[in-house]
Structures are given as C-alpha cells and as structure tokens.
Amino acid sequence: MAFPNWNAEHEVFREMVRRFALEEIRPNADKWRAEGYFPDEMFRKAGDLGLLGIRFDPKWGGSGLDYWYTVILVEELVRGRDLGCVVGLLVQCEMATSVIHAHGSDALRSEWLVPAIRGERIAALGVTEPSGGSDVGSLQTTATVDGDDYVIRGKKIFISNGARADFITLAVRTGGPGPGGVSLVICPTDAEGFEVSKRLKKIDLESSDTAELFFDDVRIPRSNLIGAEGAGFRYIMRAFQGERLVLAAMMNALCRDVMDETLGYMAERKVFGKPISSMQVWRHRMADLLTELDALALLTYRAADQLSDGVPEGEVSVSMAKLQGAELARRLVLDCGHALGGYGFMEESYVARCTRGVQNWGIGAGTSEVMREIIAKRLLPSGSA
Ligand SMILES: Cc1cc2nc3c(=O)[nH]c(=O)nc-3n(C[C@H](O)[C@H](O)[C@H](O)COP(=O)(O)OP(=O)(O)OC[C@H]3O[C@@H](n4cnc5c(N)ncnc54)[C@H](O)[C@@H]3O)c2cc1C
C-alpha cells in the first residue's frame, strides 16, 4: 500500500509482536476471562520485548519509532483474542504514559516513565468522573496547593488498570472552572487517602480491571505536576490523537479477525444443501461489510501516516478512523454473529463473545458523537451548527 512513511522494516516488528500474542496471550485467554484478571507479569513480559515504549525517546528506554509501529502493535496484540489484556497493556504504553513522556520533568520521567516502559510499574490514566467523561473541561476532582504539596479530593470512574496501578496519571482541577483550570499530576497509589472504592463488573473485556477510585485528601508533592499548571486539558486533547488511533487500529483488527472466521464458517456450513456463502443475500451483505472494512483500514493507515509526519490534518483523519471503526464494529460483528446461526449465541464462539461489548467501542477516548463534533468543526463552514 502506498503510504510515504511505510517501510518493510515494519513487518519484522509485526512478526515479533504476533509471536508474543499467539504464545503469551492466546493460550491463556479463556482462563483469564474466566478469572476476570490477567497477571501483572504480562506488563513485564511486554516491557522486556520493548513493546511498552515504542514511540518514546531511547533516552528513557523507548524505541523512538513512528505511529505505524503503534498500529502494528495493536493489530498483532488483537490476535491474542483477549482484548481485556490488550486494553490493559495499551493503556500503559499509549494512554497513561505518553503525557509524561511529552511534558513531564526529567525527574518524573526517571521515576515513573522509565519503569513503566520496562513493565516494572503499572500505570493508569484517571480522567473520567462519575459526573461525566466527554466534557473533560468540567471535571471536579480538585488539587489544592498546601505548602510544597497538592491535596487531592474527588472521584474517578471507569479507570482501566485502576485496581492494580502503581500510579495514576491524574486529571485534576488546580484552577478556576473550565478547561484552563485542568492540570495533570502523577498520583502514586500507595499515598494515604487513595482508595480503590470498587472494581467494576463489565459485560466484556473481563480480564482488564476497571475501577472506581476515591481520593480523600491525598497529599502528593507539587513536583508531581506534569508540565505546566492549567495546561492539562491541552495535553489530554493532544494525547487523545494516539489513543484514538489505537482504538481505530483495534477495531480494524477485531473486525478483520471476526470477518475471516465468519467467512470460513459460511463456506463450510450448508443450509438447504448449499454453503451459506453461496446465498446472494449473504454475499451482498458481506461484500458491503468488506468494502467498509477496507475503508476503515485505509482511514486508519492514512491517520498513522499523517500522525507520523505531524501533519495538521491528522486530527480529522484520526477522528474519522475512530468513528468508522466504532460504528463499523457494531454492525459487522453483529452481522457476523447472525451468520453463525445458533453458534453465534454460544460462549465458545469468539465471534459470539465479540458481540457482547460491541456497543462500547464508540465510547472510550471520545465517543462517536464527540468524533463527529471534531470532524464537523474542522470541515463544515463555521456558524452552521
Ligand atoms: C471499558 C472502559 C474503559 C475505560 N477506561 C478509561 C480510563 O482508563 N481512563 C479514563 O479516564 N476513562 C476511561 N473510560 C471512560 C470513557 O472515557 C468515558 O466513558 C467516555 O469518555 C464517555 O464518558 P461518559 O461515560 O461519562 O459518558 P457521557 O460523557 O456522560 O456521555 C453520554 C452520552 O452523551 C453523548 N454526548 C456527549 N457529548 C455529546 C455531544 N457534544 N453531542 C451529542 N452527544 C454527546 C455521548 O456520546 C454518550 O453517548 C473507560 C470506559 C470504558 C467503558
């Protein structure tokens, strides 16, 4: 495929990640799902292979690579077929640490980023609150200055890795109302007053831990501030580009896997003496979905290429890719489940299991409505909304 930043070296990396996914994740997926947890040692194993800092500066233990490697990392991890584990690992390397890499002091990078890249310390990103997630600029958790410390008070919800994290990259209010009052700090989870108030039960991604967190006058040093006070909203919005690319790539890989499995079944399974794949109604439905799936792949790869080059259109491209990924996954996975007949309702079927949480993929890192807002704001004439 002709993308300027693509090169053959990416494929060598793909092979390595594929082996990791097929050897370390896939054989354990059923067990971890049943237990509702994947072991912490997975972070260490991924760190040992250099998977937790691929775009980060080698000075901090990263590999200094481009966004194509991120896409390949995600595509191959999804082959492990335990998306709970995949989300846990990706939150660590793409969501909770990228702002420390981009804006943290060298002291914070040494203390928190370096061990996170090695998989020795587990990270979570705490933005969403019980009062809302889409409107980040209205968050309510406060960090009040007291001498050389901040004192944090508030609640976070739906936080991936939240119950097992060693530290939270935490969005707090240090100033007045609105986006300009938001800052990012690092909150160690052994600080007094920090509590995992609940591990939340989910209908999918069973092996990832998703927690509600409580901060009751948690005291952290002011030096744990990431970058400048009041710049947190801007940092979060910038970091969202990488997170959204990750989700688009995840949907691309998930849909491709589900589609391949379904097409195999449709070719084998006979109804009224003929394979399902010979029925025109199914041929047309699958032709439509395959066309949309190629569109998703192209949107995702265009976004990866533009983010690698830092072109300004990257934000629109990545929003389009994420929107297409979330919306297509919902239709494609449900249609594929339907093609499997009764098997599409059975726990043992991967396709069936994927139908369970499929509506959720439009929620994380900005909902589909938020993606449409971004696209419309950039591409529609102003004043039209
Ligand atoms: C499995 C999982 C893992 C998660 N992990 C994390 C994590 O690690 N860290 C973290 O901070 N958060 C995490 N989240 C939270 C996630 O980011 C939020 O759920 C998301 O941002 C939406 O926020 P909300 O749930 O409060 O919905 P709300 O913001 O209350 O939105 C509710 C509905 O209103 C719609 N809406 C919002 N704005 C508009 C608009 N302008 N126009 C039209 N409709 C609109 C939304 O699209 C949505 O359909 C996770 C969520 C899940 C489900």
Give short descriptive properties of this protein:
binds flavin-adenine dinucleotide; 12 helices; 3 domains; 15% strand; Butyryl-CoA Dehydrogenase, subunit A, domain 2; Butyryl-Coa Dehydrogenase, subunit A, domain 1; 4-stranded mixed β-sheet; 385 residues; alpha+beta; Butyryl-CoA Dehydrogenase, subunit A, domain 3; 4-stranded antiparallel β-sheet
User: How many separate domains?
Assistant: 3
**Which CATH class of the largest domain is shown?**
Mainly Alpha
Bound compounds, each kind once, are: flavin-adenine dinucleotide
What name does the CATH topology of the largest domain carry?
Butyryl-CoA Dehydrogenase, subunit A, domain 3
Percent range for helical residues? 40-55%
Strand tally = 10
- Individual helix count: 12
Largest sheet: 4 strands, mixed
What is the terminal separation in angstroms? 37 Å
Structural class: alpha+beta
Question: Care to describe what's here?
Answer:
The chain has 385 residues and is α+β, with helices and mostly antiparallel strands. The chain folds into three domains: 9-122, Butyryl-Coa Dehydrogenase, subunit A, domain 1, CATH 1.10.540.10; 124-230, Butyryl-CoA Dehydrogenase, subunit A, domain 2 (Beta Barrel); 233-379, Butyryl-CoA Dehydrogenase, subunit A, domain 3. It is 49% helix and 15% strand. It is built from twelve helices and ten strands. It has helices spanning 9-25, 29-35, 41-48, 67-78, 83-96, 98-103, 106-118, 232-268, 280-309, 314-339, 350-356, 368-379, and strands at residues 123-126, 142-146, 149-160, 167-173, 182-188, 194-199, 210-221, 225-226, 270-271, 274-275. A four-stranded mixed beta sheet has the order 1-4-5-8. The protein has a four-stranded antiparallel beta sheet with strand order 2-3-7-6, with helices on one face. Strand 2 (142-146) and strand 3 (149-160) form a beta hairpin. The radius of gyration is 21 Å and the shape is globular. The model has no long low-confidence stretch (mean pLDDT 95).
